Amino acid sequence: MGGKFQPGVSGNPRGRPRGSPTRPSELRKMLAGNAPALMEKAVQLALAGDPAALRLCLERLIPPVKATDEAVQLPDLAGLSLADQGRVILAAVGRGEISPLQGNALLQGLGTLVRVVEATELEERIAALEAKKDE
Question: Considering the entire predicted model, what is its pTM?
Answer without folding.
Answer: 0.48
